[in-house]
Specification:
Largest sheet: none
Number of strands: 0
Helix content: over 70%
Order of helices and strands: HHHHHH
CATH superfamily: Tetratricopeptide repeat domain
Oligomer: single chain
Strand content: under 5%
Number of helices: 6
Number of domains: 1
CATH class: Mainly Alpha
CATH topology: Serine Threonine Protein Phosphatase 5, Tetratricopeptide repeat
Length: about 100
Amino acid sequence: MDRIGKLREFLEKDPQDAFVKHALALEYVKLGDEAAARQLWEEVLERDPSYVGSYYHLAKLLERIGEKELAISWYEKGMDAAKAAKEMKAYNELQAAYEDLVD
């Protein structure tokens, strides 16, 4: 079974699994299905705003498709979430991407 099929199978067993949704979104990006990836990352962050890993990827996707202001907003939310979770590596990555976009 391919990776997407396996991830979908896991998601059927636990539809709210943030890790699986995040991983599936990454696979969709590889296929060029940015709309499906975006939807999954938005679902992850709506349900679990502390899932820091999805902020960077969602903001990068938005940046790629030309939604600069929305990307900036997600970077900012991600920096806040990373700081609250004391995940400084993630914070630094989000901040660097944010600064590259706003400069």
